[in-house]
Structure formats: structure tokens, C-alpha cells
Amino acid sequence: MTDLSSLTQMFNQNKISRRQFLTDMSALGLAAAVSPAMLPGTARASEPKRGGRFIMGCTGGSTTDSMDPGTLTSNMNYSINWQIRNSLVEIDHNFKPIPELAESWDSSPDAKVWRFKLRKGVEFHNGKTMTAEDVIFTINHHRGEKSKSVVKPYLKSVENIKADGKYEVIFELSGGSADFPFILGDHHLTICPAGTKGREWEKGIGTGGYILEKWEPGVKAFATRNPNYWKEGRAFFDEIETLSIVDTNARTNALKTGQIHYMDRVELKTASLMKRMPGINVTATTGTAHYSIPMIVDQTPYSDNNVRMALKLAVNREELLKQVLRGYGELGNDHPIAPVNQYFAKNLEQRKYDPDKAKFYMKKAGMLDHVFNLHAADAAFAGAVDAAILIKEQAKKAGITINVVREPDDGYWSNVWTKKEWCMCYWTGRPTEDMMFSLAYASGAPWNDTHWKNKRFNNLLIDARAELDTGKRRQMYLEMQEICRNDGGTIVPMCNQMVEASSDKLAHGPIAGNMPMDGFRNTERWWFKS
């Protein structure tokens, strides 16, 4: 980086921290020439003010949704969950774990025993004081024998949880886990009152900055500020209204007309136009998000890696990045680890569009005459149907026939994803390699949407998790990314920036890239200027 504009771009994309930004500015002799008002983040920030109703239009939402945190699957519900609840650990905008309900933590030298000290005096919305009992109950809810929680694989190594008094919790693991604080910062692992069950989940009782007043699954939620919120300098709005608006045009029109103040997943075709609209701010944040096209590998013909390799080679990623993402992203390489992750395999050869090789592999599989059904809906991601149609045309050059099956937006995640043999998908990603791999690529993981199993990969996953030597750990994760690329059942054509839009009446600091909506915490971190 050699100039102010490059540094500013890096900062706004969360590729460098504020501290690094200022350090590099000083090194270039530019710091003195830049006023605080020009600094990224602070340019948008103002003195926080309380008040107002913040209305969001979000993707996702289904009538089958629940506020059981183990079942959350959409942006809408992730946001509501963190409006009303907190985790032990918060992931900040620099991808670092910081204290939330836990005020501190430490581990044994082998990272097998972790002790978390809890904040005292934190109350649930029902007036109950949070203690170690609630933390233990919550974690066990996800790791129980009958649990169907999507984060159960994260907690597989937890052998025992015990309290040391009312405000300390000790986790005993079967093996070392250097990333354990990151795990407890996951957006599913929000702390709930001990004993919560059945319909009680829908009450949304938590310790969060807002109290759930009304909840219509798949439609909307309404919450009011928690007058006893324990966090200082957070949760500034009086009220939060969260609406499920799956259609991109409907979300856009709602923002234009002032019916909502924020929308996720801006239609990239119109992003440049929205940037020029008065009263609207558009942000593009680089994080761990990526698009994928999973093939269920225990079904014919995807059980044959020749078929999988052919389809990977039949995708023109450059064209998809240009046409679907409008340049708001980077090329994917058939593994889920993003360039912002610590152990990203930057030297792994980038897969390229090669119709001749694709035809070779498909012929080797004896499947050139097969018609491949690719299931798609824009509920997967904005432009998913267009992307599927582009892939269909790209594959023709390899002699591969693809039939695009258009699915309804409503119920896509429950009726299509993990059910149909090949479909469009979207991942927000995770801040660490272990979390992403454990959730979606480990053998038997509930969100392993391809049913893929690779013995070498699974052994490396366990070994890397416990390895405290960062050099050795890096080599393991590099190999795992290569295994995914060459053997996995997932096509990852591109890593997208999170392009979102909001009213210029809102203010905030640097935007986190670990999840959409400022790490799903914009309701807590943002405020109205007046």
C-alpha cells in the first residue's frame, strides 16, 4: 500500500485494523495531513444518541422458524437472536474474540481445559440473574444426545462442563482447541435461562439489549430496548422492527421510500445506482462470505469424483464474478476458506474454466449424456437463478447438459438445500478455519450439505484443532483446502463482499466482516444521528 486511497479501501474492507491503518499512515507521513473526520469508520460515526425505531428488511424467514438458537438458518433470525441474547464471547470487527457475557478466560498449556469467568449482575429479561447454571444448560442444549443443533459438531470435543461457584465455568475437552473462545462466540451459542424448552424458546428470553415483544415466524419481529441492559454504550434504539422481505426489489423499494432503514443483500445490478441516490449509503464489506453449489456425493452420479471435477471445471468463475457479483468479490477455489482468514491458502493454484478438461472428466465418468438438474432460487442468494443459467450456458461448451430447476423462494432452505442433489447455496462463513470445516465439511456434520467424507481431511481437522504451533497448523489447513478443492462435493465459484444499504440517518463505527449486518449486531452497535 502506497497511498491514502489504497489504505482507506483496505480499512473499509476490514483487511487491516484501525490501528494498522493509523500506523501505515504515520509511516507514509500522511497522518498529520488527515483530519479525524476523514478517517474510515469515524467519517460515518457521530456521538451516539438514543431513540427511534430502527426498521430492517432482511432476507430469509419461514413460517417453520423457531427462536431455539440451535435451529437458526437465516439472516433475519440470526439478527433477532442477537437483538435479544448475548454469547459468552463477541467477535469484533478485526475478527478477534473479545469478552461479552464472559469477562475473561484462560486455558491450560495444552488448550484442553478452559476456564471462563462470568460477569456478575447480568439479568435475563424475566429478571433472573445469569449464572454458571444457565451457561452449562445452554451449551448442553446444543451438545445433548438428541440435539439437532447445527453447532453440535463444534462442541463434540467437550467432554465435561462444570461450575466453579456461581460465576465460573470450566470446559474440559478431549483434545486441545486453540480456537475455543471463537467457538463460544458463534451466533447460535447465545445464553438462555436454564430449563428453557418447547414453546418457551419462542418467548426469546435472553440478556440482550432488546426484549422480544412480538414474533411472527417468517414475517416479522418487534423488540423494545431492555431498560436493564448490562452493556454500556450499546443498544441505542428504542425499538427494533425486523421484517422478512425476501424479494430484492421489494427490499430496495422499501428503503427508497423510507419504509425501512436497512436492507441486506443489495441487488448488485443496481448497487451503482443506489450509491447515487440521496439519503442512502451503500457499503461493501469483505469477510468470510461465499457462494457454493453443493452436490450430494452419496447420490449417483455425484459419487464419482470425475463428475465433480468436470462440473468444477465447467464453471467460468471470472464471468460469474463479473456478471453476478458485478466485481463485488473474489474468485472462489472450491473450498470455503476466505482470503481474510488466518490460514487462507493464497498459493493454491486457482481453478480456471476449462471446457476441454471438463469434457474429458465427464467422458471418463461415462456421463456426457446425463442431464444434470441444478436447483436454484434467489432465496439462496441474490442472483442465484441468473448464476445457474450462466453455468448452464458455460457447461454447454464442455458438452455437459444442465437443466435449471427454479424453486420457490419460500421454504428453500428447508425443502431444497440438503434435500435436492445439486443446488445453489450461500454461506456467511466463519472467523476460523476449524469452525467452517467442522460445521460443513467434517464427516457427519449436520450442515455437511454434500454428505462428503474424506478420511485424511477428517484426521487433519482433529490434529489441526489441537496444534498450538502456528506453523504446523498452517500446513495442515493448507492441505485441507487442497483436499476440498480436489475431492470435495462443493463448487465454490466466488467469495462475495457483503453489499448492504441503509439510510443516511444512521451512524456507526467500522463494520465487522465476520457476518452480515455488522456481524449481526447492527441493532446493538448502530444509532440514529438525531
Automatic annotation (TrEMBL):
Coiled coil: none annotated. GO terms for molecular function: iron-sulfur cluster binding; peptide transmembrane transporter activity. It is found in: Cell envelope. One of its GO terms (cellular component) is outer membrane-bounded periplasmic space. Residues 96-448 form the Solute-binding protein family domain. InterPro entries: Peptide/Ni-bd, SBP_5, SBP_5_dom, TAT_signal, TAT_signal_bac_arc. NCBIfam families: TAT_signal_seq. Belongs to the bacterial solute-binding protein 5 family. This is Peptide/nickel transport system substrate-binding protein.
